[in-house]
Amino acid sequence: MGARSVRFKVLLVEDEILISEMVAEVLAEQGFEVHAVGSATEALCVLKAGTSIDVLFTDINLGDGMDGVTLAMHARVLAPDLPVVFASGRWALLDGLADLPRSAVLRKPYSPHRAGVVVAQLLAAPGPQSRERMIESSGFVVEHI
Fold this sequence. Notes:
alpha/beta, Rossmann fold, 7 strands, about 35% helix, globular
C-alpha cells in the first residue's frame, strides 16, 4: 500500500477576485487544499461550520466591514493555535502584526509563489513553546511563540 500524502488546508480570504484566483491556483499547485472566500463573514461561516483548516491566509483590508485582523481574532477564539498569514499593501499595519504568535505577514505586492513559501514555513515551524523569527529581504516576517 502506498503512502498517503497530507494536504494542508488553507482558508484564503481575499476580496479582490483576481488576486484570490491567482493565489489559490498557485497554492493548489504547491500541494495545498484551498478554500477561497471573498469576505471575513464568509470565512467565519466556514470556520463556525467546523471545516478543518490548517492555516488562515487573509488580506487585512476586506470590503465587508470586518477586517482581516478582527477575523483572525474571531478565528483564534474557535481555534487558538490556528496559524495566520496576514497580507496587505499597507505595510504599517503589517508591522504591528509581526509579533503575533503563529503568524506571518506578507507585504503586497507579493508573488503567489512567495505566498506558498510563507504558508509552508509557518506550518513547518516549531510549536507554540518556541520563539523564532525569520526575516527575509523580500519583505516578510514569520514569528512563532
